[in-house]
Design brief:
With 104 residues, the protein is α+β, with helices and mostly antiparallel strands. The chain is built from 2 helices and 5 strands, in the order E-E-E-E-H-H-E. A hairpin with a 5-residue loop joins strand 2 and strand 3.
Length: 104
């Protein structure tokens, strides 16, 4: 799980430990990426958008710091984001009509 920013662990309801990373922060939101615990299974990674309500959100030229976002992500917030998360890999979308890679 090589990443540029700070990483923390989130334990899912099934007991799996996902790596959590904040990416692409803007003035009002940031992408929260859940890295699959398998490491080499990036096709199983998930993402969700976290809305930022700090002072940066009122300025279109501001950018929230990814470490600041990470510090606001409590276990309850991560749990909600994980439940709302989507697969990063388009091939794993059940609506696409294609089976996930490696499941054939």
């Amino acid at each position: 799980m090589a990443t540029d920013g700070m990483m923390r662990v989130f334990k899912g309801a099934d007991g799996k430990k996902w790596g959590v990373e904040v990416k692409m922060p803007t003035a009002s939101n940031a992408m929260v990426v859940f890295h699959h615990p398998g490491g080499k299974t990036s096709g199983l990674d998930r993402y969700a958008w976290h809305q930022w309500h700090g002072p940066e959100a009122r300025s279109v030229t501001s950018r929230v710091d990814d470490d600041a976002v990470m510090k606001t992500l409590s276990d309850d917030v991560l749990s909600l984001l994980f439940r709302r998360s989507m697969a990063i890999s388009a091939g794993s979308n059940p609506l696409s009509g294609q089976a996930p890679a490696g499941s054939r």
